[in-house]
Amino acid sequence: MRWLSRLLSHAAAAGRTSAVARSTSIHVSGGSHGFASGGWEGSPAVPREWLRKLWREELRKQKEAARALGAFARSYESVEAAGAATEAPSRSYQYDDRDLDPVEAKLAPLLARANLVIARDIEWANIMLAFEQESRYIIMDPLFPQSPVGFIREKSNIIFRQLLRTRRPFVAEITDAMGNEIFKVRRPFWLINSSIYAEVDGKEIGVVHKRWHLWRRIYDLYLGNRQFAVVENPGFWNWTFSLVDEDDKLLAQIDRNWRGIGFELFTDAGQYAVRFGDEGLSHKFALAADVEELHVARQLSLPERAVALALAISLDSDYFSRRGGWGLPFLIATE
């Protein structure tokens, strides 16, 4: 019987050792890989191979979602580009930047518009004291009149301004709304017939020559050595200046707008509408909705438009600038 009791004691000890071993294995695996082995005593173990498959499937779904999002983004960008191309005429741009040479590319941000409005600032020293100031102009797009698209700033000698007045020589910088120079116009001193030159980066691209006539206002416009337009205004009562070609076909138009009795009688603050034609505009709004459509024989090139803008500055200096010094009458007229 003694041998039987020893056998039973050995069997019990072996059972306790096996149970301790199983418990230790569960706790150790739960501590190092708790999620993979259940994480607590008695919980079912999760196969690692199944977790790897689940992770690979999740990665695959994420990649498919990323590819789908990229395809959507490309589709959205193409729709936006098509919309931009469709709405380009409403922004009044009439030229494709990809087809322009360096001179045209510099002129395009300002002059590739169907219409421009040029308004001269009030010169208070000229009004009150007859002190001639440098002329300042604001350039606006009638489609977006809330903010200017450019400026014109005269640079001239203070003594020449007082002595020579409208015959003074000057240089005017035409800039964009940020003050970056686009091109310049240069107007030398003159006695009988005035001339004004358009220059880009110091290189002359065109010129406007005035022809003397007793009552008519005649200007010849040149691009290089080639004349591309002429203006023959019938007289002082007419404020519309039409640019026509050699076949008398309309190319562009400059209108001097009436700004009210106070402005016209006592100031030089004129306003000009430079119209290059409305081809390519699907619809008009803002101030442009009130402007009658202008149909032209052909679109002026960007350098030709720069010369036309120089003509507007010359017209203002030749015919619509006057000596100031009105003082009190202006204040009464504007009240």
UniProtKB/TrEMBL annotation:
It comes from the Eukaryota. InterPro entries: Scramblase, Tubby-like_C. Pfam families: Scramblase (PF03803). GO terms for molecular function: phospholipid scramblase activity. GO terms for cellular component: plasma membrane. Belongs to the phospholipid scramblase family. This is Phospholipid scramblase. It comes from Panicum hallii.
